[in-house]
User: Which sequence fits this backbone?
């Protein structure tokens, strides 16, 4: 039986209170802007998954992790269904860089009230449902 997958999206904030977004390629949600993230692995805590995914995707360490909530993301056209858990964090050390160029075409820092479009469905749903605020 098919079941939803568990995804993790990580809000990485810098000292200017901006969040890091990356433009997706070669995966579901291609050509949309998303948070760094990925899948929760077996026996991993949400915080461990967030720290691992950020390090794997953009090569930085994060601190002050806080679970913000989740969305139920149904992507029928792509035959995908995710529960996406969102985590807030602060940049701890390192300079973000694209470590997976086959998955990400560009990245940038954005103020929460001035995000690029289009957003990846889970992030779009979270922003609409949770109304995350700057800072």
Assistant:
């Amino acid at each position: 039986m098919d079941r939803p997958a568990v995804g993790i999206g990580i809000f990485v904030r810098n000292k200017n209170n901006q969040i890091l977004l990356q433009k997706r390629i070669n995966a579901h949600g291609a050509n949309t802007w998303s948070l760094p993230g990925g899948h929760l692995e077996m026996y991993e805590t949400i915080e461990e998954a967030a720290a691992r995914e950020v390090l794997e995707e953009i090569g930085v360490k994060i601190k002050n992790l806080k679970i913000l909530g989740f969305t139920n993301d149904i992507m029928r056209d792509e035959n995908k269904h995710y529960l996406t858990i969102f985590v807030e964090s602060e940049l701890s050390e390192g300079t973000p860089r694209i470590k997976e160029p086959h998955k990400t075409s560009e990245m940038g820092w954005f103020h929460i009230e001035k995000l690029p479009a289009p957003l990846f469905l889970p992030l779009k749903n979270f922003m609409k449902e949770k109304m995350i605020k700057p800072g």
Summary: The longest strand covers residues 61-75. The chain has a mean pLDDT of 94.
